[in-house]
UniProtKB/TrEMBL annotation:
<comment type="similarity">
    <text>Belongs to the short-chain dehydrogenases/reductases (SDR) family. POR subfamily.</text>
</comment>
<keyword id="KW-0602">Photosynthesis</keyword>
<keyword id="KW-0560">Oxidoreductase</keyword>
<dbReference type="InterPro" id="IPR036291">
    <property type="entry name" value="NAD(P)-bd_dom_sf"/>
</dbReference>
<keyword id="KW-0521">NADP</keyword>
<dbReference type="InterPro" id="IPR005979">
    <property type="entry name" value="Prochl_reduct"/>
</dbReference>
<keyword id="KW-0149">Chlorophyll biosynthesis</keyword>
<comment type="pathway">
    <text>Porphyrin-containing compound metabolism; chlorophyll biosynthesis.</text>
</comment>
<dbReference type="GO" id="GO:0016630">
    <property type="term" value="F:protochlorophyllide reductase activity"/>
</dbReference>
<dbReference type="Pfam" id="PF00106">
    <property type="entry name" value="adh_short"/>
</dbReference>
<protein>
    <recommendedName>
        <fullName>Protochlorophyllide reductase</fullName>
        <ecNumber>1.3.1.33</ecNumber>
    </recommendedName>
</protein>
<dbReference type="InterPro" id="IPR002347">
    <property type="entry name" value="SDR_fam"/>
</dbReference>
<dbReference type="GO" id="GO:0015995">
    <property type="term" value="P:chlorophyll biosynthetic process"/>
</dbReference>
<dbReference type="GO" id="GO:0015979">
    <property type="term" value="P:photosynthesis"/>
</dbReference>
Length: 319
């Protein structure tokens, strides 16, 4: 019998190729959790995922009612849940004013962090009931969210920094747009949201790993410079960035290879270490082995992870 994995944002880029890589093993059924059904259907067919191997269930991660409806719809399928991949994300680096979700929260953080935070919390019950010996939650991280690495030190527009979480403490509604309560910087909102993803993974691990046996981990799959993630950037950036990552930094990786890496973290026995953040390094080499990447002090700050958890619970209506 096949295992079931839910993948958010499987309509393009890394999520789509993760779905493809897992389907290719013939051991996984996919639930593609996406906001555009038709686009996802076309994408699945384009990469050749067999029709009987995937179900598409709608979700808008920025809308918490939709996240709850997704969980209900998933439960109605009667499938058991063996792995969850939190992959969907938005990146809107040249916005002048913040966009907001129905609750008034800044859209990058609402989508990338809060929507996934709620989804993980709701699906914990389902994962606990998995018949798999090693159910897993995999949350996509990124290099620019980790100040321990060069990519995380880039000051354009600013490195990630949640400060004392003042924006969350004060309810995260207008005029607040940043977690630290300071001035709106859209590129930083993305880095902050990805830092929250890693802190959420750490806190899930601390709270639930021993008790449930679920493995919680994150990874940086490499720089997928040609993925549609950069569609909201200047068009010149979109032309130069892949070249720069291929020729100068050596960080470039194809969507297909990135999908294989995520799939490995979902299924391969060597990735069953909970609380780990996996990386293949910043310079890609053929057959390069993965390793557990050291995290910045902020991403390893247990007190901050706990406080972020409590405030996020309030913002999504769990408390
Ligand atoms: P893409 O833009 O190709 O994919 C993002 C996916 O998220 C799409 O399927 C998109 O759906 C979905 N999505 C966006 N907003 C929502 C929403 N509100 N509700 C549901 N789904 C939504 O980006 P990538 O594949 O590059 O990124 C995937 C992950 O990989 C992200 O977590 C990113 O941070 C991470 N990552 C990417 C790197 C890169 O270099 N590209 C490097 C390191 C990490 P739709 O098709 O409808 O827009």
């Amino acid at each position: 019998q096949r295992s079931t994995v839910i993948i958010t944002g499987a309509s393009s880029g890394v999520g789509l190729y993760t779905a493809k890589a897992l389907a290719d093993t013939d051991q996984w059924d996919l639930v593609m959790a996406c906001r555009n059904i038709e686009k996802t259907e076309n994408a699945a067919q384009e990469v050749g995922i067999p029709k009987d191997r995937y179900t598409i269930i709608p979700i808008d991660l920025a809308n918490f009612d939709s996240v709850r409806e997704f969980v209900n719809s998933f439960r109605q399928t009667g499938k058991s849940l063996d792995a969850l991949v939190c992959n969907a994300a938005v990146y809107m680096p040249i916005l002048k004013e913040p966009k907001r979700n129905p609750d008034g929260y800044e859209l990058t953080v609402a989508t990338n962090h809060l929507g996934h935070f709620l989804l993980c919390n709701l699906l914990l019950e389902d994962l606990k009931q998995s018949s798999s010996p090693n159910p897993r939650v995999v949350i996509l991280g990124t290099v620019t969210a980790n100040r321990k690495e060069l990519g995380g030190k880039i000051p354009i527009p600013a490195p990630p920094d949640l400060g004392d979480l003042k924006g969350f403490e004060e309810g995260f509604k207008p005029p607040i747009s940043m977690i630290n309560g300071k001035k709106f910087k859209p590129g930083k909102a993305y880095k902050d949201s990805k830092l929250c993803n890693v802190l959420t993974m750490r806190e899930l691990h601390r709270r639930y790993h021993d008790q449930t046996g679920i493995t919680f981990n994150s990874l940086y799959p490499g720089c997928v410079a040609e993925s549609p993630l950069f569609r909201n950037h200047y068009s010149l950036f979109q032309k130069i960035f892949p070249w720069f990552q291929k020729k100068i930094t050596g960080g470039y990786i194809s969507e297909e290879e990135a999908g294989k890496r995520v799939a490995a973290v979902v299924k391969d026995p060597e990735y069953n270490q909970s609380g780990a953040y996996w990386s293949w390094g910043n310079r890609q080499k053929k057959d390069r082995k993965s390793f557990v990447q050291e995290m910045s002090p902020e991403a390893s700050d247990e007190a901050k992870a706990e406080r972020l958890w409590e405030l996020s619970e309030k913002l999504v209506g769990l408390k």
